[in-house]
Design a protein that fits this description.
Keywords: Membrane, Transmembrane, Transmembrane helix
Number of strands: 7
Number of domains: 2
Structural class: alpha+beta
Distance between the termini: 93 Å
Order of helices and strands: EEEEEHHEEHHHH
Helix content: 55-70%
Largest sheet: 5 strands, mixed
Strand content: 5-15%
Shape: elongated
Strand order of the largest sheet: 4-5-1-2-7
Radius of gyration: 36 Å
Length: about 280
Amino acid sequence: MTPALYVAHDDRLVIASRLPLGVVGGRGLSFRWGSVVEITPADRPGDPGPLTGVLYGLGFILGLAGVLLVVGGALGGGLLVLAGMATGGGPALHRYRQRPGVISAPRLSGDREQHHVLIDERDRKVFSDAIDVCQRASETWPALGALIDVPIAERQLAHALFDLAGALERRQELRELHAELTEHDGAFELAARTIRATAALAELDDEVSRRLATLDTVAVAGEELIRDQEIAALAREADETLARLTSTGPANETDAGSELAERTEAVLRAYRELT
């Protein structure tokens, strides 16, 4: 099934798009859950270890020795040059291939309405938390069986995330405008616009909170339903176990322990009478 939403993120921005996103110029990582695909550049490779430094040094020495031999007319110099390039160039080529790429949104400018870009750290954090909540919700669906149409629910959840990103993007832009207006708080010409921006920002805050609460309700509802199912199953198991373990059985069933005790007492009585 074609994903309904692509989410690309790095340390600077988040892009939520209905159109495919990717990573170019290096390595990237992707993870799909439900109808959402998350994309991010790979982490930067760590510092080269001591072995890498040894290989670089050995490659330099072999290359230098090969050059000197070539200058001196020795036939084996070329082979040493090649060996030096292979020894030192191998680690360099590996690190080059391990470099992190950058997010690519090839249709961002042409289909701007299909993308929402979040730059503000606060909004990126809100959206990241919303993704975690949506993942919680989607993890409950397999256990709900026929109670939910999973493909439809996955796409609805993806659309809800896209709409949330849109509200966050609008709030982000409005917050910047509001900050610029309040810098000129005493300007009469801007007073009415500042009031409108303040009211609009409050409305967007309410919208974002409402959307987040709705997503949390979806996750909690699924988790509570699964909890109810687990409790009902445990109750049935407890009834079966209690019925099996607390049953008194037939009235005439012989108690082996009592019978043994009676026989032992009878033997003791007989022994005492004989002695």
